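Figure 3 (text version): structure tokens given as input.
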């Protein structure tokens, strides 16, 4: 498969989970990649791939300067930027409103919105000029929590609903040069963590028996791996397969589909 031949793509949070699955799939399809990643071990893992088609930038999506450096790295290394994939996120481990103290509510709001919403805005702002020049695309990672309850707690769900608004507004503002869409995966076992302000920075979603739940209760009765989601990103990043698609969120979360009656 070489459907992304020579497409220049910037992925934020590309060191693990869905982000790493995107990196692997896109390299296989011929893309050239820049990755903005905060974790030094994940950066080292990416660099161990040893591909001349991959450049890494160590930084934080909540910093505009770091987003700007990542865009510059893509343009300086590969000559342009065609696609921005915003993929960094935090989960709140389904903390309900009444289970949060007022202090936790305030701090958790700041932390989750900074990563899940502001991080996307800063990335889009840093990349906008380059993407307009290339008539490129933005793809954001959202969640089934962008549409439904029970995909997380009140704070996470609010951030993902906000992400839905970002897609629609940015698609309007950046048209006709830039297409803006999102992919909404469901649950999977990754090292997704939560904010330190809620004491969730050392927990990972894979510590919960997610795979067992999916096998028993999802419509497809199968566990989902990050690589299972990467194809939708490849479709939206294509220079020819999704040229009429903008302002759209693809809900690909089999786990969000009610289990059929028996």
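Below: residues designed for each position.
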């Amino acid at each position: 498969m070489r459907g992304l031949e020579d497409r220049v793509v910037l992925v934020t949070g590309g060191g693990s989970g869905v982000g790493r699955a995107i990196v692997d799939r896109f390299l296989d399809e011929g893309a050239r990649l820049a990755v903005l990643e905060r974790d030094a071990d994940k950066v080292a893992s990416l660099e161990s791939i040893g591909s001349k088609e991959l450049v890494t930038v160590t930084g934080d999506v909540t910093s505009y300067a770091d987003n700007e450096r990542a865009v510059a790295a893509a343009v300086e290394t590969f000559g342009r930027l065609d696609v921005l994939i915003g993929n960094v996120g935090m989960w709140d481990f389904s903390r309900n409103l009444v289970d949060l103290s007022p202090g936790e509510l305030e701090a958790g709001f700041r932390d989750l919105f900074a990563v899940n919403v502001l991080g996307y805005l800063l990335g889009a702002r840093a990349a906008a000029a380059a993407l307009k020049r290339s008539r490129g695309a933005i793809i954001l990672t959202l969640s089934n929590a962008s549409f439904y309850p029970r995909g997380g707690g009140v704070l996470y769900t609010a951030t993902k609903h906000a992400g839905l608004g970002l897609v629609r507004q940015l698609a309007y503002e950046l048209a006709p040069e830039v297409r803006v869409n999102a992919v909404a995966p469901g649950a999977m076992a990754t090292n997704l963590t939560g904010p330190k302000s809620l004491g969730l920075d050392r927990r990972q979603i894979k510590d919960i028996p997610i795979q067992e739940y999916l096998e028993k209760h999802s419509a497809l009765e199968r566990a989902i791996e990050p690589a299972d989601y990467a194809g939708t990103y490849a479709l939206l990043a294509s220079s020819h397969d999704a040229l009429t698609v903008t302002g759209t969120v693809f809900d690909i979360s089999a786990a969000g589909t009610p289990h059929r009656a028996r």
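Strands lie at 8-12, 32-37, 54-58, 83-86, 137-141, 179-184, 248-251.
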